[in-house]
């Protein structure tokens, strides 16, 4: 989906010089609202409780590891970009290949760093926090039984 969203604009941008001023202004002013309206129409059945397929798909257990890594990646990706861009001696040429290379390497690096952060810091802390809660719940249930 990401590749389509990125490369679908390329044919439109190649022929954008031949567009009239009206066509150009309509494209610029309506592209984002139309995208958001389409996104809302896709998610509306889920919000109304009518789309069991969407709900079951997004509630599947295979999303759990990705969700744990994605939040850490969300937090560290701007840091990675700031470090990368501030360490360059000169401004990068912002062609399509350079942007894709920096982005995809950044995503791979960020998810690898997220995995290491999750294994070394987040998982042990969550085990410490939830182990005390589980022990407290077990002791409460034992007290209620006796």
Structure in words:
The protein has six helices and no strands. The mean pLDDT is 81. It starts with a helix and ends with a helix. Helix 5 packs across helix 6. By secondary structure, the protein is mainly α. It folds into two domains: 60 residues, no CATH class; 86 residues, no CATH class.
List the helices and strands and how they pair.
Elements (H helix, E strand, L loop, with lengths): L1 H6 L1 H6 L6 H27 L4 H7 L4 H24 L9 H50 L1
Helix pairs in contact: 5-6
In short:
By secondary structure, the protein is mostly helical. The protein has helices at residues 2-7, 9-14, 21-47, 52-58, 63-86, 96-145.
Q: In what range is the share of β-strand residues?
A: under 5%
State the distance separating the first and last CA atoms: 57 Å
Low-pLDDT stretches = none
Oligomer: single chain
How many distinct beta strands? Answer: 0
Global geometry: flat
How do the SSEs run, as a string of H and E?
A: HHHHHH
Computed CA radius of gyration, to the nearest angstrom: 23 Å
Counting DSSP H or I runs of 4 or more residues, the number of helices is: 6
Number of domains: 2
Q: Structural class, from secondary structure content?
A: mainly alpha
The pLDDT mean sits at: 81
